[in-house]
Amino acid sequence: MKKQYYTDEQEKIALYAKALGNPVRVFILDFLIKNAHKCCYSGDMAEELPIARSTLSEHLKELKKAGLIQGEINPPYIKYCINRENWEEAKILLERFFTR
């Protein structure tokens, strides 16, 4: 059996930190937080960012993989929102980490 060197908390901190490691993804999260009263379509964000839609899609995929956002498919569009549960967990874990 392989020895586990990292705690589950350390793994989650790394996951969230990786998701936050790109300014485009930070922009996306900030955009969704500021529009927290409603979910946003990727097209709304594409109008705000000077990047290709395919690049935006890759960033959204990374944030979704980290669990910080969630998407609701409404063909042909996908609405994105902050995943409140994981967002709160990320805030707690990162704050705890930075105040050690």
Please tell me the total number of domains.
Answer: 1
Strand numbers in spatial order across the main sheet: 1-3-2
The CATH architecture classification is Orthogonal Bundle
CATH superfamily: Winged helix-like DNA-binding domain superfamily/Winged helix DNA-binding domain
**Helix content, binned percent:** 55-70%
The SSE order reads HHEHHEEH
Features of the shown structure:
5 helices, Arc Repressor Mutant, subunit A, 100 residues, three-stranded antiparallel beta sheet
General description of the model:
By secondary structure, the protein is α+β, with helices and mostly antiparallel strands. It has a single domain (8-98), classed as Arc Repressor Mutant, subunit A (Orthogonal Bundle). The chain has 5 helices and 3 strands. It has helices spanning 8-19, 23-34, 42-48, 53-66, 84-98; strands spanning 40-41, 69-74, 77-82. A 3-stranded antiparallel beta sheet has the order 1-3-2. Strand 2 and strand 3 (77-82) form a beta hairpin. Helix 1 packs across helix 5, helix 2 packs across helix 4 (53-66) and helix 3 crosses helix 4 (53-66). The longest helix has 15 residues, at 84-98. The mean pLDDT is 92.
